[in-house]
Amino acid sequence: MVHKTLGCANCKKRKLKCDLSRPGCQRCRRIGKDCPGYPDDWDLAFRSENAIVYTKVQKKQTAVSGYIEREPSSSLRSHSPRNDLSDNIEQHAICLFFCDYIIHSCPGICDGFLDYLPDLYGRYSEDSGLRQAVLAAAYANIAQKTRRKDLELEATSFYHGSLQKVKHNISNPQLATSDINMTAVILLGLYEGINNGSILNSSFEHTKGLSVLADLRGSSLHGKGPTLLQIACCQVNRKNIEFGLFPSPADERLHNLLDSTSRTSRLILNMFNVSIFSANAYHDIQSGIPERIWNTSVLHHFKKLENDNEQWESDARIAIPYQTTTCIVGDHPQSEGQKHHIYRGFWSETLWNKHRSVIITLSQALLARLDVAKSSSRDEDFETKDIIELPYKVTREIQIMVRDILASIAFSVGDIPSQFTVGMPKNVGGYFLIWTLKVILRCPVASEEQRDLARAALLRIGRQFGISYALKSAQVYMGMVDSPLPANSGRRPT
Fold first, then answer.
1. Domain count of the chain?
2. What range does the domain containing 450 cover?
3. Would you state the pLDDT for residue 480?
4. What would the pLDDT profile of 409-436 be if each residue is shown by its tens digit?
């Protein structure tokens, strides 16, 4: 039987007061012992009662999904997953990873994220590519939390093993585009975010590979919730926006498969269109040709994209509304009076923040065009009322979007409890926020105070959730390492 105590088992045995620090207490660290942890969500990583812990996870997932009537695609529907995990660290790592990164869907409230993975893994755990991809991400997750080098090395070994299997599967058209192989590619990218920490890392190669596989798979990627198609398109758009890249023909074919009646798909299509607008802006600026930098079609295109995003926001306020609170967050009394958002789950939050990032990117690209055009053209060309007011309007919109992203941080890291989230905090909340915070750090319109808040949030996500990519991103924008991005981050790398 698992007994609840206030301190760790080592301190209790030694009859000492435990400091309850995370992930392990300081007393254990000073005497060189592994802290067994505490009887809460973190015990999945540290305690030895493996069968009981695994049962707890299953009960927790059942409680979440008890009122969820899921209808997975036919390719994912089969018998219940069987537990063939051995009684060791592997079970701990997988259970913790599933708890940290899987979001269960709630029909009519919020979509899930990778919620098909436990079933898929249960049925195909013998598949070395999928199994090693799951273990790579799971071991990386627990290694970052425990700071155990041996587990980090295990994660790396699983990563390379899965990568070799995925490469082998690509030679077989049927295996290349299977749920198993595509999910493995997604997990390899997730591993890179948790464990690698390099800005120009392999996750972007995985994104490119996922785009190719999804393109080969075609219309069979459709399904409920955030589908493999939507996940692939999101990753592609984030990469293109961050590095100012034009979509490839495969990217375009993928987006043509999206169901434009879906709220998530419409947001992804907005991201796609804005990525093109942004890439065109910096490509035209580099050309130095005034007629390409600024003309009436540019403004018309901007207004069209602006209207698309306004329509999405109007619909989202009805379908996935969020609440605003001014409560004190955690142990920070200075947060009193600050506004914080409460969402209907982490996926709903990430949709809103992707929308805000799209608005910032769109507005920033327009301002860049306008600034260069004014410096190289006659002043009278920009003296109409609309053009004079445009920079102020666009700048104000950016500041509103930045403010709202920052207001979502407390929810993402678990400082604000919500009836729509179970077992908070979850790593996935912080993981989803990283790209959005980087958008703020690249935005010259954001104030220094806002950028400081974004950096602080990245540092916290990296340390609290063990995501090294967040730490590396914060360091880049603090000048601690040289950024590989161009000085104008929207331009295409040369």
1. 2
2. 262-476
3. 42
4. 998 888 876 665 555 557 888 999 999 9
